[in-house]
Amino acid sequence: MKTYFKIISLYLVIVVSACKSSNSSEESSSASVVSAESPPNVIVILVDDAGYIDFGFMGSEDLDTPRIDELAASGTVFTDAHVSATVCAPSRAGLITGQYQQRFGFEANGTGGIGLSDEVQTIADVFKINGYNTYALGKWHLGEDTSDHPNQRGFDEFYGFLAGSRSYFPIKNPSEYNMLQHNGERVIFDGYMTDVLGDQSVKFVEQSADKPFFMYLAYNAVHTPMDAKEEDLEKYKDHPRQKLAAMTWSLDENVGKLVDKLEALNLRENTLIYFLSDNGGAHNNDSKEGPLKGWKGNQFEGGHRVPFVLSYPKLIEGGNTFDGLSSSLDIFTTSLAAAGIEKPKDIILDGSNLLPYLTDEKQGDPHEQLFWRKLEESGARLGDYKTVRLKDFGVNLYNLEKNLGETINIAEAEEDQLNKLENAFKNWEHSLMAPLWDEGDEWMDVTYHINKSLMQNKEPLYKDIWDPAFKTDREYIKR
Fold it and tell me: Which is more confident, 478 or 446?
């Protein structure tokens, strides 16, 4: 696995050199000098259900992502980065609040009609009260009630949709939940959702050129449905993953569009950009997890280890990789540090400031331990060791340094290590509240079966509740 990331490091160095050599001296001399006192812009680019190796900078050989690769080359690629949940909604809740979402009962997918707790503050809340323009674009999936609307959670502007997924093309009679909207008012659009969101991200940057901004750019690509533009489908007509390749190409174009606008306005140098996926790749969108076991929805590495990039040219040199244990929870804490904003005393943040690790002020890992829990499935990480636990079934222990694919259960052989992780997990659970909703019997049966099968190194019989055979054999696979 280390060899794999050495190859990525070499690739990044090559891309950085190519990017630098392509800039003319005229362009270099016209760039504005960023003052040390200028607060940075902050952009979180969150993509949906992307496979771990489905970008060039992560080793993909069949999906074209030149602009995203340039972004990665301009910053640091994290090789051991994780999100706080293996499915969309709770992962987003953790990122946007900077704390384990289980602290406020947001543990399962959907929102249970409840959404974000009224007691928690979002990263947008903090940036807004500190003089930033705040923008949310794309997929929300954090609640449908008025109190959950992005405009009520710290965002000056919301241009997107509340649902967890929707067609990438116009819907004739959309519900309030899946319509494209701008601050609650329906937007009638033509074209393709990824392009629409990309265009709007550029407009927001133009509007905010004289004031610092925080942008949460949550693309629904490459989540199902597998919708793509005709011209992109034609471009990849002979590709074995045609629809995913076409959708990824459009995503890449629009990331490039945003970066180009930042460059044109001389804002790029002082803009901190994160790029990551909300969870592991989904098995139903043709994504690939490479060396990782599992996928979206289960507690193996393929469910929560994600591509993660931090690019901040003003402070961090490009072309590097970072191997320390890190998390999407770190985005909140790191962004406050970059902006010189003091953490409000009344909020809990479970993330670390990544910047000192990237400037060699600190050595080691930003986290000694990380935890995951979704209803009946859970996991814990301590150093190179990781547990995967399933209620009423048992717990497996893996050494990820020796066995990243999580195929060798060493729970009996290393009982002392198992006990350390179990005790750490129990201590963490004391800080949580009970989940406020679950995912329904059918979906919970599926995820239980998948986690159990993977713990036994068996191929799951079913991978989603839309498999027609699942309805017939549901009793067979239950517990």
Answer: 446
